[in-house]
Amino acid sequence: MSTSYDAIVIGAGQAGPSLTVRLAKAGMRVALIERKYLGGTCVNTGCKPTKTMVASAYAARMAQRAAEYGVVIGSQVGVDLARVMARKDKVVLDSRQSLRSWLRGTAGVTLMEGHARFRSASEVEVDGEVLTADKIFLNVGGRALVPDLPGIRDISCLTNSSILELDTLPEHLVVVGGSYIGLEFGQMFRRFGSRVTIIEKGSRLVHREDEDVSQAILDILSREGIGFRLNAECLSFKPHGRGVAVAVDCKQGEPEVAGSHVLLAIGRRPNTDDLGLDAGVALDESGFVQVDDQLRTSVPNIWALGECNGRGAFTHTAYNDYEIVAANILDNDPRRVTDRFPCYALFTDPPLGRVGMTETEARESGGRCLIGRMEMARVGRAVERGETDGFMKVIVDADSRQFLGASILGASGDEVVHGILDLMYARASVDTLVRSVPIHPTVSELLPTLCGNLQPLK
Ligand SMILES: Cc1cc2nc3c(=O)[nH]c(=O)nc-3n(C[C@H](O)[C@H](O)[C@H](O)COP(=O)(O)OP(=O)(O)OC[C@H]3O[C@@H](n4cnc5c(N)ncnc54)[C@H](O)[C@@H]3O)c2cc1C
Ligand SMILES: NC(=O)c1ccc[n+]([C@@H]2O[C@H](COP(=O)([O-])OP(=O)(O)OC[C@H]3O[C@@H](n4cnc5c(N)ncnc54)[C@H](O)[C@@H]3O)[C@@H](O)[C@H]2O)c1
Hints:
Helices cover 29% and strands 24% of the residues. By secondary structure, the chain is of the alpha/beta class. The protein has 3 domains: 213 residues, 3-Layer(bba) Sandwich (FAD/NAD(P)-binding domain), CATH 3.50.50.60; 115 residues, FAD/NAD(P)-binding domain, CATH 3.50.50.60; 114 residues, 2-Layer Sandwich (Enolase-like, domain 1). It is globular, with a radius of gyration of 24 Å. The termini are far apart. The relative contact order is 0.11. Bound molecules: flavin-adenine dinucleotide and nicotinamide-adenine-dinucleotide. The site of nicotinamide-adenine-dinucleotide has 25 residues, from helix 5 and strand 17. One of its GO terms (molecular function) is NAD(P)H dehydrogenase (quinone) activity. Belongs to the class-I pyridine nucleotide-disulfide oxidoreductase family.
């Protein structure tokens, strides 16, 4: 016995729910299967809880700096982790609940709880129940990578999910991995009052960024009292007192870091190993589903969206995958993955807003480029806010005069970078920005000045 649908969506992450509703509104009978929490990583263990906690950490930091602003706080500033977590839990639960109401309230949608596994290219099994459909969409996302590092089975180690359940503040949090997850959690817990050491295998933080960006972030976080161990090439763990000792085998410094807690933040792996994909869907060597530019897999009528296809590891890329698939299937609009520009932010304080090429990539491209750079200390609004760390950098094609990329590390950098991103989508010339009249006093108001002083990239 099986139940037939027009479409099956596996995973209620950042693409699945929107696609489900869109297909149902087009008249299809759609089954959406989720094995854990509606909203997937972003809502439950990713963006939403972390940015809610980053907001608490920012409040703590501003309270600690209050005297610099002439604000007097009577007693010592403290952080109540239980209340930080309760605030985070409310934001997460509200979001999950509103998603549930939306899906339950949409005619044509059947929401199923359970783990989905393929039986054949058109049949999926959930807890013994078999579903069939002509069209199947994978939105299964990913989870923290926890490799079998020496000693890891002898200790208790946190991931981005379990750290969100802590009820006491770590005395000394050792973070393994100096990229998005490690830096966001590292700065947050430092501001809550933990001692924090970040261990990174590479020679610098956020290695995808330009060296000046990596260095500036290291300097900013070091000034907040975070310790770093770079070049930690040979990692191992062992129990130590009530905590963990992490052997780092660096070329210099102490060979071991002992902490009360360890957070592993060394990347993600796709949830494709337990889907029964031997039904024929091709994976790459890291387990990501292979897709074409319109997100079709190697099996006709199976699509893969979001992090599991290896074409983006962000909420906005997963959501754009939904837009691409819906446009192709329902609107006869051939949208493609390669239509989008890479963009993301690192939500440290100050944040890093990024779009398009780095300076290094522009140099490697061999094209004729222009570069502009300005320190945040020159930006009036940053001075007024007392947040002058960082700099802005733009890269422009010298021939077309269109933007190739930008790195905005500084106050509101995550927002300011959209001024450049919008112009990239408009295929507009840098001169459009140079001639614009921005609002004073904002950080964005310095973009025309920055872009009016471009130099050849050597
Ligand atoms: C700590 C952290 C912070 C982040 N911060 C940001 C940020 O600020 N901005 C940003 O853009 N991105 C951020 N990300 C990345 C972002 O969360 C992910 O890229 C995004 O959630 C991926 O969405 P997705 O739809 O591909 O998958 P997911 O959101 O992971 O959803 C997949 C869903 O599929 C379900 N599932 C898996 N297998 C099955 C199965 N066999 N049967 C049924 N259900 C299944 C899972 O339970 C899950 O609910 C962050 C990630 C982390 C870990
Ligand atoms: N702000 C955001 O948008 C945001 C925030 C958090 C996470 N994310 C998403 O989550 C994904 C995963 O983030 P991440 O930070 O876990 O992974 P990552 O792949 O970005 O970085 C992993 C880091 O760990 C280091 N590393 C790997 N093995 C190591 C080892 N044995 N010892 C020490 N260091 C080691 C790597 O050199 C690298 O710097 C990102 O790709 C991103 O898409 C996004």
